[in-house]
């Protein structure tokens, strides 16, 4: 067997496929997820079923979203799994996860996410945060570091602010490249994201929060007064108690929410005057 082929399936580079095969790591991830029989649970990118099989054995029904048609068909024909799976062959980035949730049963989401789409996919999932109980993801270790980062460090960025706005972020375990076939060139890690029932700081407009964060971090080497000069002047920053000499990575989540709410309120006020 070459290192690209596992259980008769060749890993596809365009789908960012790396298949988990280390039993100890698999058991540790399933223990962290702790699936219960009645959980409303969905796996993104089940692949060859390394996590699918042990999780499915503990629940009544497991929803799976798989982009690769061959793998989706393979799961549909699986001797023990097929009757437990609700398979959607689709791109998770376009999928409406809200349709799987109900008021009584929030979603639990997990997956070994393709590294090439993990960040935009998480942004997509944050849109459904009110319908999700928790998420467990295998990610590039560097991405987990970014999710967990605090202000004043290099890993702190737009992903950090948005993730920590929506969720409590808890690192679970680190995973070496040898746990996969083919082995990726980077270390991996598992993280748990628990969406807040009520975020600690409430943004009046996610569009405004996204705008402020994007502008600040797109010019992260500049001070905030320069990075945000198109939407906020020094006097406004001072009035909002934000140090205009700081850079994007020195501004807390709470401060970003404060800036975004001010920008939103000002826009609303202008619209009313017009």
UniProtKB/TrEMBL annotation:
Protein name: Ribosomal RNA small subunit methyltransferase A
Top-rank EC class of the record's enzyme: transferase
Residues engaged in binding S-adenosyl-L-methionine: 18, 20, 45, 66, 91, 112
Enzyme Commission number, as recorded: 2.1.1.182
Localization annotation: Cytoplasm
UniProt function note: Specifically dimethylates two adjacent adenosines (A1518 and A1519) in the loop of a conserved hairpin near the 3'-end of 16S rRNA in the 30S particle. May play a critical role in biogenesis of 30S subunits.
Signal peptide as annotated in the record: none
PANTHER family reported in the protein's UniProt record: DIMETHYLADENOSINE TRANSFERASE, DIMETHYLADENOSINE TRANSFERASE-RELATED
Record keywords, A-Z: Cytoplasm, Methyltransferase, RNA-binding, rRNA processing, S-adenosyl-L-methionine, Transferase
Tagged with keyword Cytoplasm: yes
Catalytic activity entry: adenosine(1518)/adenosine(1519) in 16S rRNA + 4 S-adenosyl-L-methionine = N(6)-dimethyladenosine(1518)/N(6)-dimethyladenosine(1519) in 16S rRNA + 4 S-adenosyl-L-homocysteine + 4 H(+)
């Amino acid at each position: 067997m070459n290192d690209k082929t596992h259980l008769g399936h060749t890993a596809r580079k365009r789908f960012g496929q790396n298949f988990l095969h280390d039993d100890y790591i698999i058991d540790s991830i399933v223990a962290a997820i702790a699936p219960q029989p009645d959980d409303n649970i969905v796996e993104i990118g089940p692949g060859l079923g390394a996590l699918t099989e042990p999780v499915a054995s503990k629940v009544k029904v497991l929803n799976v979203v798989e982009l690769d048609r061959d793998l989706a068909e393979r799961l549909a024909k699986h001797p023990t799994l097929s009757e437990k799976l609700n398979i959607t062959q689709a791109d998770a980035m376009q999928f409406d996860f809200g349709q799987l949730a109900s008021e009584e049963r929030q979603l639990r989401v997990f997956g070994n996410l393709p590294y090439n789409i993990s960040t935009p996919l998480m942004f997509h999932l944050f849109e459904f945060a009110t319908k999700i109980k928790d998420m467990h993801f295998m990610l590039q270790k560097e991405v987990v570091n970014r999710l967990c980062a605090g202000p004043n460090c290099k890993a702190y960025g737009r992903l950090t602010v948005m993730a920590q706005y929506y969720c409590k972020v808890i690192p679970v375990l680190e995973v070496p490249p040898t746990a996969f076939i083919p082995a990726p060139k980077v270390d991996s890690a598992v993280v748990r994201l628990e969406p807040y029932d009520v975020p600690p700081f409430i943004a009046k407009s996610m569009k405004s929060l996204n705008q402020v964060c994007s502008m600040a971090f797109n010019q992260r080497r500049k001070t905030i007064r320069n990075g945000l000069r198109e939407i906020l002047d020094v006097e406004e920053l001072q009035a909002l108690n934000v140090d205009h000499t700081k850079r994007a990575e020195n501004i807390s989540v709470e401060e970003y929410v404060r800036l975004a709410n001010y920008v939103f309120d000002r826009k609303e006020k202008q619209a009313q005057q017009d």
